[in-house]
Specification:
Blueprint lengths: L3 H15 L13 E2 L10 E2 L27 E6 L13 E7 L4 E6 L5 E7 L2 E6 L8 E6 L4 E4 L4 E6 L5 E7 L7 E2 H6 L7 H8 L3 H9 L7
Antiparallel strand pairs: 1-2, 3-4, 4-11, 5-10, 5-12, 6-9, 6-11, 7-8, 7-10
Length: 221
């Protein structure tokens, strides 16, 4: 019996790990449907008898995204909102198109780890660790065929440093990983965050905060 506390601890840790990400499905599939009457943590399932082959097909990656915008990039997500068959499966993808010099700006995915593969061009990528690891910055130049991983919840970016368009595809460990673009969230929130808070947080003059909050923060998703 003296080993019981240790066994309980191991069981508790294993259980916590099991529920750390999207829950495992309890059926073969659960093609999502939207019910305007009820809000749930996730999505309701379509009747399996009404599911067809086309429910498992997503065509959104066939065409280049429009990169004529202030960031020079376009993200085409295949999350559960765009691809209902991903519901309960714990995976998703995104296509990212870049014009020369295009940037997918610093952002986080609060519910998913991202793994990125470059299929065209050259990208400078990087992520910043949490305060626990002193906000260490990891960065790398990626070429065609290279793969890079961004751990869950950490701020990261991709920049096309080539003279030609670039293309990358990302896979994420959640059907709904979420996206928080840092600049948009901090300086473009609605209603705006108090300038007093931001001037103290960033240790800058209020005029700088006023200027940043007055900008149009483009969303490339």
């Amino acid at each position: 019996m003296k080993f019981l506390p240790t066994r309980l601890l191991i069981l508790a840790l294993a259980t916590a790990t099991a529920f750390a990400f999207d829950p495992s499905p309890l059926q073969d599939f659960c093609v999502a449907i939207n019910d305007p009457e009820v809000f749930v943590n996730g999505k309701f399932c379509k009747d399996p008898k009404q599911v067809a082959e086309d429910d498992f097909l997503f065509k959104g990656f066939r065409y280049r995204g429009n990169t004529v915008n202030p960031l020079g990039s376009k993200v085409t997500p295949a999350f559960v909102d765009q691809f209902a068959a991903l519901n309960t499966l714990g995976i998703s993808m995104a296509r990212i198109d870049f014009a020369p010099g295009g940037l997918n700006p610093p952002h986080t995915h609060p519910r998913g780890t991202e793994i990125l593969v470059v299929t065209e061009g050259t990208l400078l990528v990087g992520f910043v660790t949490s305060n626990q690891l002193n906000n260490t910055f990891f960065t790398k130049v990626l070429y065609k065929g290279d793969v890079f991983v961004f751990p869950i919840g950490l701020i990261h970016f991709q920049l096309n440093i080539g003279k030609t368009p670039a293309l990358a595809f990302a896979a994420l460990s959640s059907e709904n990983p979420g996206v928080i673009t840092i600049a948009n969230a901090v300086f473009g929130s609605k209603p705006p965050i108090s300038a007093d808070i931001l001037t103290k947080a960033f240790q800058v003059d209020k005029k700088v905060v006023d200027y940043l909050q007055a900008q149009f923060w483009y969303d490339n998703n």
